[in-house]
Design goal:
This protein is mainly alpha-helical. Helix content is 70%, strand content 0%. It comes from Winogradskyella aquimaris.
């Protein structure tokens, strides 16, 4: 199906949802639920919490559908709502994104080591899962979701410098974990 036709159908579906059409809401939910659950699970690492966050995200999206502007894709708009819902869940678990002095950060340039091709996507995701929560979330938002530091600072309500610091520290730890995995695989 051509992209223009799919976009026109999506716009028709969104208009019907704005008018309270429950069948249209169900169709929109069916179209995006698996992708949004995957996003939620990536942050919460718990199936039930991810299901709840996905449901809450859809409810918020339907309530605030008037705020959706077609400049961004609907999927990207919905994904941001679901991520924010996940972050709310994590904040309730008392994860604090405290301001960190950038001067505390030591920049270590390890150009002598590159990621080896024997490392799989699963190896990388497992290494990310081992990071502390604040670094893990910034890494996921930046590297996986593609948000920039300005967007991350708004989402997490932290200074941009703190976002950069958490990303840098997370990357250094990630590199250390993956280098360890690589060395274990070699011997």
């Amino acid at each position: 199906m051509p992209t223009n036709l799919m976009q026109a159908q999506l716009e028709t579906l969104i208009t019907a949802c704005r008018n309270g059409n429950q069948m249209a809401q169900m169709q929109l939910y069916d179209q995006y639920c698996n992708a949004m659950f995957t996003v939620a699970y990536r942050y919460l690492n718990n199936e039930e919490d991810a299901k709840d966050a996905t449901q809450e995200g859809f409810l918020k999206a339907f309530v605030n559908l008037e705020d959706y502007k077609p400049e961004a894709t609907f999927g990207a708009w919905l994904k941001r709502i679901v991520i924010n819902q996940c972050l709310d869940v994590l904040k309730k678990r008392k994860i604090e994104f405290s301001g960190v002095e950038v001067s505390e950060l030591q920049i270590i340039d390890n150009n002598d080591w590159r990621f080896d091709s024997s490392l799989t996507k699963k190896d990388i995701l497992n290494a990310i899962a081992q990071l502390n929560e604040k670094h893990k979330i910034v890494i996921k938002l930046y590297l996986i979701e593609g948000y920039d530091h300005t967007e991350i600072s708004e989402i997490l309500d932290i200074p941009i410098k703190t976002s950069r610091t958490h990303l840098r520290r997370g990357k250094l730890k990630l590199q250390e974990l993956l280098k360890q995995k690589y060395n274990e695989a070699r011997y």
